[in-house]
Every structure is written in C-alpha cells, then in structure tokens.
Amino acid sequence: MDDVDATPRRRPTMREVARAAGVSPMTVSYAYSQPDRVSAEAAGKVRAAAQRLGYPGPHPAARFLRRGRVGSLGVVLGERLSYAFDDPQAARFLAGVSDVCAAEGVGLTLLPTTGASTDAARVAQAAVDGFVIWTTSDDDPVLDAVAGTGLPSVVHAGPRREGMPVIGIDDRAAAAAIGRVAFAQARRPLVLGFPVDRRRTRRLFTGDDVGEVTFPVTRHRWEGFRDAWTHAGHDAAHLRLAACPVNHITHGETFVRELLEGHDPPDAIASMSDELALGALRAAAGAGRRVPDDVAVTGWDDRDAAAPAGLTTLAQSLRDQGADCARAALGHAAGTSGQQHEWHVVVRATTRAPS
Questions:
Q1: Residues of the chain above pLDDT 90, percent
Q2: By the 8 A CB rule, do 222 and 191 touch?
Q3: Which domains does the chain have, with CATH numbers?
Q4: pLDDT digits over 102-141, tens only?
Q5: CB-CB neighbours of 339 under 10 Å
Q6: Is the Cβ–Cβ distance between 292 and 319 less than 8 Å?
C-alpha cells in the first residue's frame, strides 16, 4: 500500500489568489465581502483562481476580528454539557437565548463547567462577544473569570456581581406566595429543593439548621417558603428542607418515598421545580397517599407536564428570561440593575383550600 501524506495542506492566502487571478488583493476581498463593488469579469477571475488553488474564502475568525467581534454568544452552564439537554428548565432557558442569537445572526457557544481548577481559565479564553451565566453559586470562581474578560455579561437569577446585570424573578416573593398555598392546613411541611452549595450533597435539614446556602436560587426560594410558614404563626424549626443533588424527577421521587415511609412523613411538599414535584407525586401514589388529602404538592415553572398532572405550581417564562439575558449580553437591553420578570401562582388539584 502506498504511503499517505498526512501533513495538513496549507490554506492558500488571499494574496496568492490575487496573483493567480491577475487582480489586487483588495479585489479578492471585495469579491467575497462586497461583490457589488467588483465587475463580473473580475469576480469570475477570482472564482476561477480560488477553485484552482482550493481557496475556500476569507477565514471567518479573521473577518469577525476585523469587525471587532467574534460572532458568538457564550452561555456558561455551571453544569456538565448534557445538562443543557436533560434539564427542562435549562432547555427552555437556552431556547430563549437561541431565539435571540438566530435573530441577531450570531452563534451560540455552550461552556459547561466541571468543578475542576481549569474551568475558569477555559471560560476566560472562550472566543465569544459576551456571556450569559446560568444561575450558579456565590463562590463560583467562573464569575470572576468572566468579569476579568471585560466582555458584556449577564447572570440569570444570581448571584450578583458588580457590572453584571441579574435577570430573573423575585424568587423569595414568589416562594412566599406559593408557599401559602402549599402549606394550607399542613402540620408537617417539607420543602423539596435544589442543592445548598457546590458539594451538591443530598441532605435533610430542619428549618433551624439549614445554615449557609450559597446558591442564590435555593437560598431565596427557601427564605420565601420559610416566610410563608412562619408568617402563618408556625415555628421555623418545624419546616424541613430536603436538598436534592440534581433537579430530576427520580431524585424527587426517591427522596420523598423515603420520607413518606419514615416516622414523620410530610403532609405538604413545596417543590422548587416541577420535575421534583412530579417525582413527589409518583412517590405519593406509590405509597398509597391521597393527594391533596394526605399530602399536598406544589411545583415551580408550570412546564407542559404540570397541567395534565393537575399540579399546583408557579408559572414563569424561562424562555423569555433567556431571551432577555441574550439581548443584555449583546448590548441591546437591561441596565446595570438587571430586570425582574413576572410570575403567578396556578392553583390546580394537588393543594388544599385555605382553612
């Protein structure tokens, strides 16, 4: 068998095409970037020479750099890459980001993080025109890495950093509102929630032993649920937080099943997502508990599966929030203080009437 030359072929230059076509390099440039400024004869010579030399056209990166932009928006997930496709919340948010990118004619670069020491450097070196940061923890080093680039950046739902607008909803007020519905007639309430810190430990807390919560979304929703419980005259210590390591229906189902089988089963479960709430409904059905008579359940987001399940939930538009984050990162919207979106409680069949 003949040896195959594996040496990469050098990309022809614009100057070489101009020489072969008998025109100036500027004419070659115009033939690709502003064809109306080139005669049909000259354009034909350029195309013929480019075909002979195997010249595909100006390099896209060089073209964008001359314009002072790369042509892509970076989205920092703070999660593994598959999270963008597995988590319905992230998928809806990214759909909003991609809507704006398509309208603006820019690409979308997903930047997952793994918790490794190389995350910050990799994000800082990304070839993008701006960043959208999916909600993360207060102590995530990627935040400082993004700030250090000096590029336009926006954070979804927090945490806050100087010069980075935060776009989302008032999670604490929203949680207090749906918490009042979730905890109606309850004596043993439970909040089924997200991780409290970057260790993502699965853990059951009592209300007076939660401690520091470094994920702002978890913290603000927990504070709102606690407000709803204590403002009704109850002791904070009687409200529990079941922190799941991942926002997934099976994690909610497994955790709630264990609690329902325990010595102090909850009679009301306020979930921080519809995924966790749907898992709680599965666990209740498996344990033979009536909803809402034996255990009330609420969700968060009003995803497509919420209405068929009769789930009482909190409606918000993550797609709209993603779109606004993208516009802000591209310099089209939102000031330094960010923007708060609307939300409302949707009462269905999984909660009790107020006493």
A1: 74
A2: yes
A3: 72-168 (3.40.50.2300), 171-315 (3.40.50.2300)
A4: 999 999 999 988 888 888 888 988 889 999 999 999 999 9
A5: 18
A6: no
Question: Across the strands, what pairs with 108?
Answer: 73
Report the relative pairing of strands 153-156 and 166-168 from DSSP bridges.
parallel
CB 351 within 8 A of CB 184: yes
pLDDT reported for residue 60: 53
Percent pLDDT > 70 in the chain is 93
Q: How do residues 6-22 score in pLDDT, each as one tens digit?
A: 444 577 888 999 999 99
> Exposure of 87 by Cβ count < 10 A (0-12 exposed, 13-18 middle, 19+ buried)?
buried
Q: Given a cut of 80, is residue 154 above it in pLDDT?
A: yes
Distance CA 157, CA 175 (A): 14
Other beta carbons within 10 angstroms of residue 111's beta carbon come to: 21
Q: Where are the beta strands (DSSP E) in the chain?
A: 72-76, 107-111, 130-133, 153-156, 166-168, 189-193, 203-206, 240-243, 268-271, 296-298, 313-315, 339-340, 344-346
Q: Is 240 helix (H, G, I), strand (E, B) or coil?
A: strand
- Look up residue 245 and give its amino acid: P
- Crossing angle of helices 216-231 and 171-182, rounded to 10°: 40
* DSSP calls for 134-145: -S--TT-HHHHH
Question: Is residue 185 within 8 Å of residue 244, measured between CB atoms?
Answer: no
| Span of 2-11, 55-64, 184-193, 237-246 with lowest mean pLDDT | 2-11
Rounded Cα gap, residues 164 and 329, in angstroms: 9
In whole angstroms, what is the distance from residue 164 CA to residue 147 CA? Answer: 8
